[in-house]
Write a structure and sequence with these properties.
CATH topology: Rossmann fold
CATH class: Alpha Beta
Radius of gyration: 17 Å
Order of helices and strands: EEEHHEHEHHEEHEHEHEE
Structural class: alpha/beta
Number of helices: 8
CATH architecture: 3-Layer(aba) Sandwich
Bound molecules: S-adenosylmethionine
Distance between the termini: 32 Å
Low-confidence stretches: 1-8
Shape: globular
Largest sheet: 8 strands, mixed
CATH superfamily: Vaccinia Virus protein VP39
Helix content: 25-40%
Strand content: 25-35%
Length: 248
């Protein structure tokens, strides 16, 4: 089947339930209503042991890979942590997004977390310019934005590839830690297909970690077949289990 988003963004209606954006296209939430920020920290940062990895010296650039960008919450949680360390390594946060959210939806995130630095006007207009460019010319699908660390010693670079996962993932560089966050597998099989997982393996080195809120059996089996060590732990909030692990 042809990727859905080759020719620019598809209509993705959003509605809010308990203050959390819900995609009507995928019939799923962008993050948990029981504390999105805490969920993201628990599942993706802790699941990938990002705090200890960023504390270790030795990475010239640390690459995070995310499937899908959504509201940017995982980005902001990671960026917030990186800003809090005295002398962190350079980070490149590579993400992808086929159905970019609109300004008014993104701004609700700022209201949910008023004490955090999230969508600034500068970041939003840079995002919108990149989407406009992509809409006019689908080959121009990369949005880049950079933050400097207060120590002035390091930068955090965001790269988001707009378009379908099948077109964007092959454009990623080798990743140190994966955030697999593409809606639930039952509702969005494309983000968890064997082809997607094979591409993730291709873009990993031995030791590359992954974490996801899902613990679906087929996902555990496919990741294991592809050479990942897969572990389970208690999921966030009311979720029973989540999985995490690394490539052997
Ligand atoms: C659960 S949301 C991501 C939440 C996000 N990480 C955050 O911090 O807000 C899943 C994202 O995957 C995107 N997505 C779903 N299917 C896709 C596909 N086939 N290609 C690219 N992006 C896709 C959705 O548009 C959505 O933004």
């Amino acid at each position: 089947m042809e990727p859905k988003t080759t020719l620019g963004p598809l209509k993705n209606e959003i509605e809010f339930k308990d203050g959390v954006p819900v995609s009507l296209l995928f019939d799923d939430v962008y993050f948990s209503k029981q504390g999105g920020w805490e969920e993201s920290s628990y599942v993706f940062l802790e699941g990938n042991q990002i705090p200890s990895k960023l504390a270790k010296k030795g990475h010239s650039i640390f690459y995070v890979g995310e499937l899908g960008f959504g509201s940017g919450l995982n980005l902001f949680v990671t960026l917030d942590f990186w800003k809090s360390i005295p002398s962190p390594p350079q980070v490149t946060f590579m993400s992808l997004e086929g159905f970019p959210l609109k300004r008014d939806i993104l701004l609700t995130l700022n209201k949910s977390y008023p004490d955090k630095k999230l969508w600034s006007e500068d970041l939003l207009s840079s995002y919108e310019s990149a989407i406009n460019l992509w809409t006019k010319d689908p080959t121009q699908n990369l949005w880049t934005y950079t933050w400097n660390h207060s120590s002035n010693q390091s930068t955090f670079t965001l790269q988001v590839f707009f378009g379908d996962v099948r077109l964007s993932l092959p454009q990623f560089l080798k990743i140190h830690s994966w955030y697999l966050d593409g809606f639930s597998p039952g509702k969005n099989p494309d983000m968890w297909s064997l082809d997607t997982l094979k591409e993730i393996q291709k873009k990993s080195n031995p030791g590359t970690s992954f974490a996801t809120f899902s613990s679906a059996g087929f996902l555990r089996r496919n990741l294991t077949e592809l050479g990942f060590v897969v572990d389970k732990k208690k999921g966030f909030g009311r979720k029973r289990e989540m999985i995490f692990g690394f490539l052997k």
